[in-house]
Specification:
globular, Double Stranded RNA Binding Domain, TIM Barrel, Four Helix Bundle (Hemerythrin (Met), subunit A), 8-stranded parallel sheet, 16 strands
Length: 629
């Protein structure tokens, strides 16, 4: 469709254009049917975050831009299809960022991080963060990312070079207070710097020495002088070893003293830090809630926040624009800070991103940011409870996020058209896979949270602990229809279609599994041996085979996307299911043959969960009622 003579392009674009040509339908030389694209840096546009693409009068296009990222966004627009008229866009934000999860079990392979960077460039995303709790190399600290697939400094430097060529700034995103349970579990090495299970011991000289090393290691591979220090959800701050060593102190004071320390470390290194803002609101809430409208933050506490620290307001939950606007105002009024705002893709605790649910929250969030004049926004991905989700499934959300940022009103059809070119997949097919978590009739997938596929997948086939969650008599018809539709979608020719084989197989497994324990229990309770025999041969044994197929498909997808470390968590879960299904088959066969007198698990009455469905999202609360697991 297009050709670009790289050697004639502005030097700042040449390496990035070469990287894009390795994947996208772009040629380096003229050929029949190809339109030329030329790029021109216009000094008047520098700082304006804008571009314009105009016909060159010779059958091609001339792209005039201010920053490299706008040139790549323009190219993404051209790839979406022939345009007849000149077009241009202006990014409404100084920072438009994507944060990629690389700590909760799945660490992206460097080549896959680069693939995300290419897509981000064509979307016009100008900043990329890798979320690294302990998964980065810290000299002298071998337990950082130990057996977890940590990035080496050389890998991160290479990624920084690669993204820089695409006009993208890479910012390290780490943790310097809470969320450090992965490294603090090594008590012989870190017992002396541990407050609670996941929180560093604030105020301790040994902790400060470790933080110096962490900040040096996290910032060294990158050109950027910005760094995200985390400091969110520091549960129990000051209540563990801190209290033993320093006594009782107000949590506000502990938080601010710790922030003073790390901010000073950053200032000494010429770094500009940001942290999540939730701890200030939680500490100021009598209920410990982030979004508590009654939260009060004492002015003297806000005044102590270092001037060089930016605060990130994260919110993945609200569907009304007014709430976002009011919380943006609270950051300005209570904390005296211009907030950075982060929305969420809702890929966590799912096998596939819940795209409609996410968009119902992302759209009003970005609209509020535009209305309130927020200058910096980013989209988060998370891997809570094992990173079972295919990270590529977040891409439709990122497309809409970027389109809003470049001044387009929410229009899913228009975003889908662009998505086919920038992300090389079908927007609607990816959205269809979100129905893994809402297979039956009733509630809307966009408004009502559900992670049905997860609890159905890992629910024990003997025990059925989560069985009372099923909201309709059967999800079977819904999963059968979804499996067929996703298999058809996976057979399409676009490059991203093959990833749909994973959710298609999930739907196939859940079609068999969703009613299994209920039907077995009923037939066994009625002593209906013929029905038990039928279920054994038509559902239990086929389910074990389909589960094994799913395990292998998930394994292959994992190894193509992430480093191999962390796969053991996923395979242990599949291994548990396959083993229990085989055991179930053996026990049922024994009961039919008369060698097994009873199957007590099928005789147990199930009680509705005391907790709500959202709290059942963790594997350990799904797989067994035993707290020993």
């Amino acid at each position: 469709m297009y050709f670009i003579e790289i050697e004639k392009a502005p030097p700042a674009l040449q390496a990035g254009l070469s990287q894009l040509m390795a994947e996208y339908p772009l040629a380096e030389r003229p050929a029949a049917g190809l339109q030329p694209v030329t790029f021109r840096l216009e000094e008047t546009r520098v700082g304006e975050r804008s571009f314009e693409a105009v016909p060159d009068g010779k059958g091609g296009w001339d792209v005039r831009y201010g920053r490299p990222i706008e040139a790549f966004r323009a190219l993404g627009r051209l790839l979406a299809g022939p345009a007849a008229e000149p077009f241009g866009e202006t990014c409404q934000f100084e920072m438009l960022s994507l944060q990629l999860e690389c700590s909760r079990n799945g660490v992206l392979r460097p080549d896959q991080a680069k693939a995300f960077a290419r897509r981000a460039a064509l979307l016009g995303v100008n900043t990329l963060m890798l979320y690294l709790e302990d998964t980065y190399e810290v000299p002298g600290e071998p337990f950082f990312g130990y057996l977890r697939g940590r990035f080496t400094r050389r890998e991160l430097q290479d990624l920084d070079d690669y993204t820089h060529a695409l006009g993208i700034e890479m910012i390290p995103c780490v943790q310097t207070l809470g969320h450090l349970e992965q490294v603090l579990q090594w008590k012989q090495a870190y017992g002396g710097v541990t407050d609670t299970e996941s929180v560093l011991l604030a105020g301790d000289d040994k902790t400060h020495a470790l933080l110096e090393k962490m900040i040096d290691a996290a910032s060294a591979p990158f050109r950027s002088r910005r760094i995200h220090l985390g400091m969110d959800e520091a549960w129990g701050l000051g209540t563990g070893k801190f209290r033993e060593k320093f006594g009782e102190r107000p949590t506000f004071d502990i938080m601010n003293d710790h922030l003073d320390t790390v901010a000073a470390m950053c200032e000494k290194r010429g770094l500009h830090p940001m942290i999540w803002s939730d701890m200030y609101f939680r500490i100021g809430s009598k209920k410990g809630e982030y979004y508590d409208p009654e939260a009060k933050i004492p002015p003297e506490v806000a005044k102590r926040i270092p001037a060089n620290v930016e605060l990130v307001y994260w919110d993945y939950y609200h569907t009304d624009r007014e709430f976002y606007e009011s919380h943006i105002d609270k950051h300005r009024d209570f904390l005296g800070k211009e907030p950075v705002v982060a929305s969420g893709s809702w890929n966590w605790n799912h096998f596939w991103t819940n795209i409609p649910y996410s968009l119902a929250r992302v759209v009003p969030c970005v609209e509020a940011c535009l209305a309130k004049g927020v200058r910096q926004v980013f989209m988060t991905t998370w891997g809570d409870d094992g990173m079972e989700c295919d990270l590529y499934s977040v891409l439709p959300v990122i497309q809409v996020f970027a389109d809003l940022a470049y001044g387009h009103p929410y229009d899913e059809e228009a975003s889908a058209w662009r998505f086919a070119a920038t992300c090389r997949a079908d927007f609607q097919d990816y959205s269809l896979a979100s129905h893994l978590d809402r297979p039956g009739p009733g509630k809307t997938i966009a408004q009502d949270y559900s992670n049905t596929s997860k609890w159905l997948m890992w629910d024990d086939p003997f025990l059925g602990l989560c069985e009372p969650f099923q909201e309709v008599d059967s999800y079977r018809a819904g999963y059968r229809e979804l499996a067929s539709a996703l298999e058809a979608a996976a057979a399409k020719e676009n490059p991203g279609a093959s990833r749909l084989r994973f959710p298609a197989q999930i739907a196939k497994v859940l079609m068999l599994k969703c009613d299994l324990r209920k039907n077995l229990s009923a037939a066994y309770g009625n002593k209906d041996r013929e029905e038990v025999r039928r279920l054994l041969e038509t559902e239990v044994r086929p389910l074990a085979a389909e589960m094994e197929t799913l395990w292998k498909r998930h394994r292959d997808l994992w190894l193509a996307t992430y480093k191999p470390f962390g796969l053991e968590v996923i395979e242990i879960r599949y291994g548990g299911q396959i083993t229990r299904l085989r055991s179930l088959a053996d026990r049922l066969q024994g009961w039919l043959d008369g060698s097994v007198e009873t199957i007590p698990e099928l005789e147990t009455d199930l009680h509705p969960y005391a907790e709500n469905q959202g709290l059942a999202g963790r594997y350990r609360r799904i797989a067994t009622p035993s707290c020993l697991f």
